[in-house]
Amino acid sequence: MRTFQGVGVTPGRVIGPVRQMPPAVPAPAAGEGLDPGTTPEEAATALRTAAASVQTELKHRGSRASGDAKDVLEATALMAADPMLLKSAVKLINGGASAERAIWEAGDGVATMLLNLGGYMAERSHDVLDVRARIVAALRGVPAPGIPDSTVPFILLAEDLAPADTATLDPDKVLALVTASGGPQSHTAIIARALGLPAVVAAKGVAQLADGTTVYVDGAAGEVTAEPDAAREEKATLWKDRASVLADFDGQGRLADGTAVPLLANVGGAKDALAAAAAGAEGVGLLRTEFCFLGRDTEPSIEEQVSAYRGVFDAFAGKKVVIRTLDAGADKPLPFLTDASEPNPALGVRGYRTDFTSPGVLERQLQAIGAAAADSAADVWVMAPMISTPAEAADFAALCTAAGLKTPGVMVEVPAAALSARHVLKEVSFASIGTNDLTQYTMAADRQLGPLAALNDPWQPAVLALVKATVDGAGAARAAAGGSAVVSAGTSTGGDSATGKPVGVCGEAAADPALAVVLVGLGVSTLSMTARALPAVSAVLRSVTLEQTRELAALALGAASATGARSAVREHLSVLDQLGL
User: Chain-wide mean pLDDT for the chain?
Assistant: First the structure.
């Protein structure tokens, strides 16, 4: 028995045989030139044809996917036709290189440039290398790299997984995901959560395991054990049996004392929304609107946007739908809106800030949202990403009012917004905390990098302190507006009517059942997550009272590290072991 420790991404305990990702596409030989009789023009045409076929295939996969998977595939498809990548390759072809060698070297150059930029753009380097390999495979007429085929369910093991691969995983065949690199917010991690697959990333040494090795994976503890013992086999069996307990989820989030904690869903389109409604979500806490914009060279019309948003609103008639305006930039560049030459895109013009450089796009989107909301029975709230100051919040609220939208809010992702929440929330009606970016910016740790996975953990006490600062600021903002900042015992968690203006969480932290307890204890009023996490989060919340959540939140805040905070809280939640979480 040998154990490898990584970072847990998605809860789950499974045992199964390992299948390694197939070998990467081999690099064309250095110095490989054009075949005799092949002109540079012919080679360049072949390259463009191969790139177009790769883009078409990725778009086709995207059309069959939804939510996070759809976003990932569409973003990768854009990279297949990236002008900088193809222009660099054609230049090398004109210098005598074969099409395969040219795209290989051009991909190296673009990937290196992105890595040097850091932040989100560093993560995009993986997309470039993935696309490069796919184009070379198309030029050679061989299958593109992908998930191994198997007649039996297996645990997929890899150094890392390309976005296009993780987005097309079949959860009926893949029992769990394990990677030797990557971080807790990498594409692999995000897709694993969306599919409900147990997953562990940054597990060094797992590449040594041979195909067929029986492995135990604990996605909560981050443990990967080869040839597991009887105790681990029992844990895996318990995890299978948990389904009967979690099936009792009735679509109403609440604590043991009856305190309501609405559990909402993160969605990326109408298909996601219908699935979330069927899963019992009490509303939508995050509608990502990028699905209307990605894969396009021009801005969608107001009419196109109205139709797309209405599909989501109709799925939740009579319920709350929180829609985030376009979060372009960083890892979601758009040719008509963002500048790919920014030296540090994660700290650049992204989200609300695109209105500084491309005024009008946000205003037209808000008009579309307003028009869709006017014809819908949904209770539509709208929020802007990357708000940093009260002035920005006030400007966004004014734009919402002009569009006929009555409930404007902000995403709290920047520490400055959390620390000045009292002033920011005077200008708007609510806040939603994006814990993915808030953690990254608080800890100054790129959320895609495996070596920084320990830093990039929402259990970090500093991050939890900023969550509390936001809730406290919301209470102060309400008190300043003439409301009460006093908690009404036993009636609410501290959002809508208790401590102040509503503060929700829509980041991945809300899908962690133990951390969800802490967030409620800090005063967060609603939790929004992938729909697959709703039953587990609900089951754990129902095991604690409001007072107990506050006690556990205090434990986490008082810890010296993320590991200490997590351990201290989990020790007091016996239900986690009972449910195999």
Answer: 87
> Dihedral angle at the C-alpha atoms of 308, 310, 311, 314, nearest 10 degrees?
170
Neighbours of 16 (CB within 10 A): 19
Question: 10 Å Cβ neighbour count for 216?
Answer: 24
Beta strands in 271-345 (DSSP E): 283-288, 320-324
Report the relative pairing of strands 223-226 and 2-5 from DSSP bridges: antiparallel
SS (H, E, C) 386-426: CCCCHHHHHHHHHHHHHCCCCCEEEEECCHHHHHCHHHHCC
The angle, 0 to 180 degrees and rounded to 10, between the axes of the packed helices 40-64 and 83-94 is: 160
Please name every residue paired with 332 in a beta bridge, in sequence order, or none if there are none: 329
Kindly give, in sequence order, each residue whose CB lies less than 8 Å from that of residue 69, ignoring residues fewer than 6 positions away: 62, 166, 167, 168, 191, 194
Contact 521, 269 (CB under 8 A): no
266 forms bridges with which residues in the sheet? 286
Beta bridge partners of 446: none
DSSP code string of 470-534: HHHHHHHHHHHTT---S--TTTBSSSTTTTSS-EEE-SGGGGSHHHHHHHHHTT--EEEE-GGGH
The beta-strand segments (E) located in 129-247 are: 154-158, 174-179, 199-201, 214-218, 223-226
**Maximal CA-CA distance, the chain:** 83
Structure tokens at 272: 């996601």
Total-model pTM? 0.75
d(CA 223, CA 320): 38
> Given CA atoms 121, 67, 309, 502 in this order, what sign does their dihedral have?
negative
Average pLDDT on 318-344 reads: 76
b/e per residue, 84-102, with b = 16+ CB within 10 A?
A: ebbebbbebbeeebbbbbb
Query: Given pLDDT bands bounded at 50, 70 and 90, which one contains residue 245?
Result: low
Residue 263 and residue 537 in contact, taking contact as beta carbons nearer than 8 Å? yes
Strands 320-324 and 430-433: unpaired
Helix (H) or strand (E) holding 237: helix 230-246
- Report, as residue numbers or ranges, the catalytic residues: 187, 506
Helix pair 562-570, 546-557: axis angle to 10 deg: 150
Task: Report angle CA 249, 257, 576 to the nearest 5 degrees.
Answer: 55
pLDDT tens digit string along 165-199?
Answer: 766 677 888 999 999 887 777 777 777 887 888 99
| Cα-to-chain-centroid distance, residue 32 | 40
Span 564-569, mean pLDDT? 95
Looking only at the bridges linking them, the beta strands covering 7-10 and 199-201 are antiparallel
